[in-house]
Amino acid sequence: MIISPDDFRSTYRVAQESTSSSPLIDPTKQVWEKALDTDTWTLYSPASVARCHYTRSSTRYRNGQQGYSPSALSTLLPVTLTLHSNDFFSVVSSETSFPAAKESASPNLWKHAEVPAVFNNTPLFYQHLLNTPLSEAVCQEIAMEIQEEQLVTCSDGACNINTSKASHGSVYASNLLQQTIATASGPVDGNPSLVTSYRAELSGIVAVLYTINRICEYYHVTSGTMTLYCDNKGALKHAFTPIRPGITPYFKTDHDLLEVTQSLLQLIPITIAMQWVKGHYTGLDRQYQHTLNETADQVAGEYQRFQYPHCTICKPIPPPDYRVQ
Question: If DSSP codes are grouped into helix, strand and coil, which group holds residue 325?
Fold first, then answer.
């Protein structure tokens, strides 16, 4: 039998009062309940130790599942079993803690590419965002440009609701040599019908910051500067502005990426300067950052049309250690 929560409260209270020694049920242990009219036993899951209070224990045993009989427990649980009996029901409890659920291994999204040592043990969230990691030689060249305070980057985003695809692109270059070092692209998470260019721009900023953070960590870069260009003023402003405490920011759709950028900015040991650049500039005063923005836009658009091997997913992958506070 499986008793109702209300019956459990009265039954447990009377049973506990009639027991002179230990309580009838310890919510931190595995519990087996035997029906009075049949030989059916039911296994109940234990509660969290932090919330084990007898006054609340009725909520711990509302639902159960059919389990082994106590005679078969000796082969499954190598511990001493204690039998408690009274006029209401009988249970067998075990000192063995309930086994924790095994965490499934995260899939490796970089099987298609050779991963340099700089990006070892990259979380799944960043694997999907970066699509393909930069090569070892490119990472080393970027590290040298950082130390020489000549590294400039530019990120751009693109989204198409009709094709249900969104992407971001970025370009790394030397400000002194006016020469491109490498380009990178990747998909954007989120429901394609709700993704805007703002989230695509933020994804590009996150991809750049994470790449720089891993390069500085691997090559022990502790000083230097980098200038980050973007043609979206809102994405730049919110990414580099500290988040105000309160619940209001969590109502924004892209707040998860904003928290990631704030975390990365605190980890990066070098100075990150951000600057807005006019997108699709056709004026007479054309500068190098306009060329970088055009290149980043082309890279994002090219990947959007041919997303491989990653693609836009409707359900975003939660960033590592992300918590809704």
Answer: coil
Assigned token pair, 148 = 């020489």
What stretch of H or E contains 125? Answer: helix 124-130
Query: Where exactly are the structural domains of the chain?
Result: 5-94, 117-305
Q: For residues 190 and 159, is the Cβ–Cβ distance under 8 A?
A: no
CA pair distance 42, 58, nearest whole angstrom: 16
Q: Phi/psi at 260 (nearest 5 deg)?
A: -65, -45
pLDDT tens column, 243-295: 877 777 777 778 889 989 999 999 999 999 999 999 888 888 899 999 999 99
Residues 148-163 as b or e (16 or more Cβ within 10 Å = b) = eebbbbbbbbbbeeee
CB-side neighbour CA atoms (13 Å) of 46: 19
- 117-305: CATH, from 3.30.420.10, 2.120.10.30, 3.40.190.10, 3.40.50.2000: 3.30.420.10
**Considering the entire predicted model, what is its pTM?**
0.68
- Angle 147-153-157 from CA coordinates, rounded to 5°: 155
Q: How far apart are CA 170 and CA 185, in angstroms?
A: 6
Judged on CB neighbours under 10 Å (0-12, 13-18, 19+), 204 is: buried
Phi, psi of 303 (to 5 degrees): -70, -30
C-alpha 235: how far from chain center? 21
